[in-house]
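Lab notebook, page 48
Experiment: co-folding of the full assembly
Goal: obtain a model of how the components sit together before planning crosslinking
Operator: M.T.
Materials (sequences as entered):
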Amino acid sequence: MSCQKAQELIHGYVDGELDLVRSLEVEQHIHECEICARAYRSQTTLRSFVKNDSFYYPAPEKLKKRIQSSLRKEAKSEVTQRAFGWRWLTVGASLAFMLLVGVVAWRLAPRSIRPSGDELLAQEVVSDHVRSLQMPGHLTDVLSSDQHTVKPWFDGKVDFAPPVKDFASQDFRLYGGRLEYLNNRTVATLIYQRRLHYINLYIWPSEQAGSTDENAIQRQGYNMIHWTGSGMNFWAISDLNSVELHEFARLVQQGPL
Amino acid sequence: MQKQKKLASFEEAVLPHLNAAYNLAHWLTRNDTDAEDVVQEAYLRAFKFFGGFHGGDGRAWLLAIVRNACYTWMQHNRSPELTIPLDDELHEIESKDLNPEALLLQSADTQMVRQALEELPVEFREVLVLRELEEMSYREIASITDLPLGTVMSRLARGRKRLQLALTNQMHAEVLS
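Observation: model returned without errors.
Model output:
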């Protein structure tokens, strides 16, 4: 390991954020290199200064009381609003009835004018994508830019082996993976990053043989591309512009040129 | 009753993290009363959006809201010069001269360190506070600050470098005086 690399990794090492292999490499290097050992020591010294219990500001007791009482007030006013809502119940009931009529009409309508399977799936994909970005820590179950970490992670979690590739040199960096429930089954999800945009790529085995061409859809400002190939269904979604998302889809299908 | 249930489960999931919330707010606002106001505001906001919290890490969820409340507060109450634009690399420090100072660093006193930490630009201060005082992982910090993991790592590294430089400079000044 070079000194430059070791110095880069020293923070991750001090913070216990390196994987075992990297961690051992840094440790080894520190043993052999006095300059890096010194850098390491000064980091641990600095750290011991900052990790000072007297730097932690505990909340004053009166703040807790203040918050509890304002929460109670807030909860009460929410209830009042809800009580007021009873007046709207009659309106709600008529709306519900109209909805019921609508559903019946839709049920009776010829199949052709109902939303297609793709349309329903697209809605599912959009809401999953939004949810994945909304909740802290929800984007990835396994966080790694290493395809050899992400691919085995899916072993035993899904009954197929999704193709996992990193396109970092094309500026689509593999960010991690997670499991999702989509289209009534568990699907593998890969997350890629391009600048500040995330791409969710959903993959699951296809029931029909053969492949289909790319299909581009736009919903709620998100671009989606889906296709079937090598026995798998692929859905890619992002807030990235459609040109770059197409470039991504092509990379997934054909690999780097 | 529904409201009692919501309030009770909110208090159970989120209230225990009051110290973490206040500590972060205090380090960001650098002032007792403002920290209290910001935390109270953040709790009310959190209560409103509690429906969107689906279990999991209540602390990280709350701290993201506290941080947002702090930034809103900073926009209203501080001149913009305190949040330094991040692409401003003018004061970026080279690491080459820092290492021999390790010994000197060992005699830095608590007050000096506190002050140096307080004077760091907020972007570095927050990641250091979350990492060292709240002992959060890079991934948790990334989700709270809504930053890519790589940015969290580089801010931590740069923040530490700045802190180290500030401390060694002070030590030098003291030795000379």
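Interpretation: Confidence is low (pLDDT under 50) at residues 84-100 of chain B.
Next step: discuss with group before ordering constructs.
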